Amino acid sequence: MATTHKTRMLIIGSGPGGLSAAIYGARAGMQPIVVQGLQPGGQLTITTDVENYPGFREVIQGPWLMQEMEAQAVHVGTRMMYDVITSVDLKGPVFTAVGDSGDVYEGDTLVIATGAQAQWLGVPGEQELSGKGVSACATCDGFFYRGKMVVVIGGGNTAVEEALYLTNHSDEVTLIHRRDSLRAEKILQDRLFANPKIKVVWNKRVERFMEGENGDLRALALIDTQTGEQSEILTDGAFVAIGHAPATELFKGKLPMDETGYLLVEPGTPKTEIPGVFACGDVMDHTYRQAITAAGTGCMAALDAERYLAHRDFAEAAKVEA
Ligand code: FAD
Ligand code: NAP
Fold it and tell me: Which atom of ligand 1 is nearest to the CA of 116?
């Protein structure tokens, strides 16, 4: 039978953003509920080595980090729900979300932490070699390719930034783009073309990621988008950088978004245009998209939710007294 769960802070999403909001919210006595979604723990559960999350001298594993974050959130009083939200009502003053299970979640405040997913090419070998040479995050994985050959696929700002970033680790970076001109901003293009460590391969589509004898990525099979000619490029690492899709389908028509679907917040805050509704992590951040920035904005969302409730409770108490 469907149940209604009530809380002072409802959090949708269990990545670093949602769980950090939960840790702060629970410690502030808001007894948060986290609805975990299809990917409990978020994007870091699909990676292996994490070397840039502060506090750990040695390499840690993404899934382990997220298990620890969840355990910490539960330890301080968060209730975790294995459910996927299928609709929301943001009219307030109580915000309602309905789960796939049929359960209803009611929050005096709502924190949206549904993240963003890297878009993939969807060609053979890509998912099989993910973590074995294929990645969607140069900041996360570039370090593992020190002194090796790497390629970046894409022609937008992300691809160009990833290629430039990778030159910190590698002297042989190749950008592969399906057309003969880049979509990236001119200033980034200028930096790219001026960098002697980067070569651009135009008009090529990746047909397949090819495995080496050791089980890691060895090469990419390419096809020329103009002539149809087939070729191969040897590489140790391939970074797919063809865009990210924020998980904001639920909020279409309910909250303002930019043209790429990221939730808009008041600059420098996690506040959406609806008082009491906050957004944190990748769902409102197409620039940084890191675990630490998601955790940071999750913390901000909880602090602002607490202030919102304190202000609201004070105003209601004053009304009763009057
Ligand atoms: P996410 O981690 O994307 O989590 C979103 C959550 O929302 C998930 O739990 C999902 O189940 C839930 N959700 C979505 N829709 C619904 C719904 N309808 N109902 C309920 N729940 C829902 N960053 C680093 O700092 N260091 C790294 O080394 C690093 N490596 C990475 C490696 C890979 C392969 C990838 C893909 C990313 C990596 N990142 C890394 C980036 C980092 O993972 C993200 O920046 C971070 O996870 C964003 O956190 P988030 O909480 O905003 O969202
Ligand atoms: P994007 O601008 O949408 O660019 C995606 C790129 O990937 C395009 O060049 C596209 O090719 C290519 N692509 C898409 N699907 C492909 C496929 N199936 N096969 C091969 N190539 C494919 O995405 P983004 O670069 O991630 O940027 C997203 C948004 O964030 C943009 O608004 C961007 O300006 C912003 N951003 C800004 C900064 C910054 O300001 N520094 C940094 C990063 C991102 P085509 O060009 O042929 O379509």
Answer: 3
- Nearest alpha carbon, ligand 2 atom 14: 242
- 244 Cα–ligand 2 center, Å: 8
From residue 152, how far is each of 39, 133, 262, 283 by CA, in Å? 26, 12, 24, 24
What are the 10-residue block averages of pLDDT along the chain, 322 residues in total? Answer: 95 98 98 97 85 94 96 98 98 97 98 94 97 91 95 95 95 97 96 98 98 97 98 98 94 96 97 98 94 98 98 85 76
Contact yes or no for 153/178 (Cβ under 8 A)? no
* pTM for the model: 0.83
Distance CA 251, CA 112 (A): 10
Which among 113, 121, 170, 168 is positioned nearest to 147, based on CA atoms? Answer: 170
Closest ligand relative to 82 C-alpha:
1
Residues making up the chain, counted from first to last: 322
Pocket residue to mutate for ligand 1, from 134, 140, 280, most atoms within 8 A of Cβ:
140
Distance 113 CA to ligand 1 centre (A): 9
Q: How far apart are CA 162 and CA 19, in angstroms?
A: 28
β 10-12/172-176 pair status: unpaired
